[in-house]
UniProtKB/TrEMBL annotation:
This is M23 family metallopeptidase. PANTHER family: MUREIN HYDROLASE ACTIVATOR ENVC (PTHR21666:SF270), PEPTIDASE-RELATED (PTHR21666). Its EC number is 3.4.-.-. InterPro entries: Cell_wall_metabolism_enzyme (IPR050570), Dup_hybrid_motif (IPR011055), M23ase_b-sheet_dom (IPR016047). Residues 1-10 have a biased composition (Acidic residues).
């Protein structure tokens, strides 16, 4: 841009702080002379505002500030500045200047208008970006907090479940131990009861045998056991059917228990024989007698009913005793005598 000096020559002019006096709040424009352009910096500034408004100032948000060069009118600017009208008096301009100057007290009036507008727009975009960034960070923090809370709750649930599992296992272990202790106690009680019952049974049996011993006796007082029940021999048609008590001839034969003599007399190979029937129907045969003292009627335990002899099919004097329950087949006399309390 060139300036006009006094001799009418053009030269380049760079404005400085001394050459331009900023006027705050009051703008003047030069009057048009002979159809020429206005030379006031204020009018040029208003023209820049209109141009920027038409081109869209909002699009300059991301662009660098545009430098504005003003024409240097030399000394004429100082001479005619007082004669220029106020900017507020211009049609359609005064309202813009008064509004912006009166309301925007926070903008820098000394800087370029484009730079001021761009600064305000940039600040609005920066605030919006910061707000968006803040919302994103808040959402991220909320999501992270929710995830941490969910993880904490999951950990607490797992801990509770694990504790419950351990408590259940401990309870089961304690219950098993209690069950085992109860089973052992019950087994011990049953064993003690069994032993007590066994002892009581043995005691009762001993008492019974003792009582029976008072009513059962051996057929002879002194004897020697010879041929036993079931023994085989050539002198018997079958195996031996009784128990032999060897004793001298004439030894008294006693009633083993009280009963009734139902038979007495000669019985072939048995010689002289006495049959004593007890109250339960068991028959006792006393055989090979040398003589019979009692041949009928009731007898008591220990009564002498005959004497040892060697009659019938024998090789020497002895008493052959047979036991026939219910008057049936003979059984081994030895267990029967022991069952009735006799130690034979």
């Amino acid at each position: 841009m060139a300036d006009i000096d006094g001799d009418g020559a053009w030269e380049e002019w760079n404005p400085t702080e001394e050459s331009l006096r900023p006027v705050r709040g009051k703008h003047r424009v030069a009057k048009q002379r002979g159809g020429g352009l206005a030379r006031s910096g204020t009018v040029l500034g208003v023209g820049v505002i209109a141009a920027v408004g038409a081109g869209g100032m909002a699009t300059a948000e991301d662009r660098p500030p545009v430098p504005i060069s003003m024409p240097d009118i030399g000394g004429m600017a100082h001479e005619i500045s007082d004669s220029l009208p106020d900017a507020e008096a211009l049609p359609g301009i005064g309202g813009l200047i008064s509004d912006s100057g009166g309301s925007d007290s926070g903008s820098d009036s000394t800087g370029p208008l484009t730079q001021v507008s761009q600064t305000g727009t940039t600040g609005t975009g920066a605030n919006a970006g910061e707000a968006l960034r803040s919302r994103i960070l808040q959402q991220a923090d909320a999501q992270q907090g929710a995830a941490e809370e969910q993880a904490r709750e999951a950990a607490e649930d797992a801990a509770v479940k694990q504790a419950a599992t351990r408590a259940t296992a401990a309870q089961k272990t304690a219950q098993d131990a209690a069950d085992k202790a109860a089973a052992a106690k019950k087994a011990a009680e049953l064993e003690a009861k069994r032993k007590a019952e066994e002892a009581a049974r043995r005691k009762a049996e001993a008492e019974r045998l003792a009582q029976l011993a008072k009513s059962f006796i051996t057929p002879v007082a002194s004897y020697t056991l010879t041929a036993s029940f079931g023994q085989a021999g050539d002198r018997w048609a079958a195996d031996h059917t009784g128990q032999d008590f060897a004793a001298p001839t004439g030894t008294p034969v006693r009633a083993v228990h009280s009963g009734t003599i139902t038979q007495a007399g000669w019985a072939g190979s048995y010689g002289y024989r006495i049959v004593l029937t007890l109250d339960d129907g068991t028959e006792l045969w006393f055989c090979h007698l040398s003589s019979m003292v009692k041949t009928s009627g009731k007898v008591n335990t220990g009564d002498v009913i005959g004497r040892v002899g060697a009659t019938g099919n024998v090789t020497g004097p002895h008493l052959h005793l047979e036991v026939r329950p219910g008057a049936g087949d003979p059984i081994d006399p030895m267990p029967w005598l022991r069952d009735h309390g006799l130690n034979v």
